[in-house]
Fold:
Amino acid sequence: MDGFLRELMRQKKVSNPLPEKGTIYDYEFKEKTKEWVDWAKSFEAFEIDSKLAYHEIAIPTADSTRNLYLIKLLLTHNYHVLSLGPTGTGKSQNCYKLLTNYMPDSFQYISLTFSAQTSANQTQDTIDSKMEKRRKGYYGPPIGKKCIIFVDDLNMPKKETYGAQPPIELIRQYLDHKGWYNRKDLLFMNLEELIVMGAMGPPGGGRTYITNRLCRHFNILAYTELSKEIIMTIFTSLLNFYLKKFPETVRGMGTAAAEACLEVFECAKNKLLPTPSKSHYTFNLRDIWKVVQGICSAAPKFIADPMQFVNLWYHENMRVYHDRLVSDEDKTLFIGELVVIANNIFKNDLASQEHEENRTFTSRRLVYGDFMGGRDLDIRNYINIEQNDKFLEKMNEFLEEYNAEMGNKKAMKLVMFLDACEHICRIARIIRQPQGNALLLGVGGSGRQSLARMASFISGYKISQIEVIKNYSMRNWRDDIKAVLLQAGLENKPLTFLFVDTQIINEQMLEDINSVLNSGDVTNLYQEKDFEEIMNQCKADCIKKNLQPNKMNIFTMYLARVKRNIHIVMCMSPLGEAFATRLRMFPSLVNCSTIDWFSEWPEEALLGVGKGQLLDVEV
Structure:
């Protein structure tokens, strides 16, 4: 395309030809000055705002800046837009960033996330609930406003018997006929001032091809896989910003750490390939993001020299990649690669170490946590826990505290051996981070629920779990999930929601979990009285962020609270076809969570549990 346009410009003798450097995608044409300007010039002065939390930071790139500009241009001129690209390229993030920060006040938005189970009725109800009557038979956003319907994962709905995807056909019906039928009285609803914006990954896995009858309405923008240079720029900027507070010997290691993270990611993607029994071996740029998040959450005063920093880097990679591996062969392969990468890339930094044994990195059993000072500390430092005996002693203390607080009925008789304590650390590490959700994979009886309860207790979070009794219905489920979401959003305190695959009475439950993981919302969940409470509690958040306190913005603030505070811990069994099918149908189960695989317990653990049980027996 670049060559074709350059040749065309030469033939037409254009007075302002493209610069020789780069491609046409690197430049914006400024009509006033009649010159080509590199997109990178628009964010040269960008600095990370120190008030933002890690998950709120977005580093601009030439691609994201260009796509934001084009999407905004199209939307403000009433054109429908579809963003297409692989997972982890920033499609959804870019769209949400545009909708919340850069669109004029006359635009509102509704966000939907499609999954394999999404129905046309759900989609229609969500959109209808946000519309107001304008005149007889005509509906739309409030007068003077336009509404953007943002549909994430547009091509996820499964095909019905005849090959159609009902939610997509509903969207197409609006695009073709500017409305649909009200299902109660069967009158046609004309919809006005709606613009559709979609985002989707390429077909494959649970994603399918969508009909050309829908595609023809959209202007399609492609997001390509990020180049290594851009990935390096993003994560080097993040690491350098956070390492400013670290000791001088560590401060300059940001670039090396970003390069090492990228190499580990490439290694995992190319050597740990998904198979039917390893369907969760899917890696994308979110994994690098999680590793860097772990590094950036460490306390500077406890990382005094390069070796301690490399240990932290190694530990975070182990937690993000190694913890999802199912076989000893895969684990050995990954650890070997990790050690080689560490010694190659951090070689110069480690050469300055005083002690010779610290000049070469070797694999070791590392545990990091923020709870060694107790549960009630205001500032909890994320540090390396070096002494196993003190670690086990602290865990037993926590268990006693838990049992004392919960009473005899809910007390847990656990034997705190090292492997179990490590799993508690891993779960606590995941849920201590904003938007941290865990997927615990293992067979029944491996201790997933008990250890998740302990991790939540240690983190100081409330824990909620549904109780599936006889005649438990989807209505009960909706009431339970609403209570949990309102607790997270209105009280603005972190909580853990524990969900087990044996509690699934209907796949629609996973559809709702998928929505909460993605957007913090569930279709048609709230009543009018709930909205009143949300308005009262979240109005102040809008005023703080200088946003107009209208219904849409207040609800957006509420969803941000929910996403920040709710930590979903899902316990699932990887056996059988149902697990692989669920991962394919609900991609957020993997994409929006960190996986911890529970392997068979070692012999010392089984002996410890056996002894613990026999101590209570009177002979």
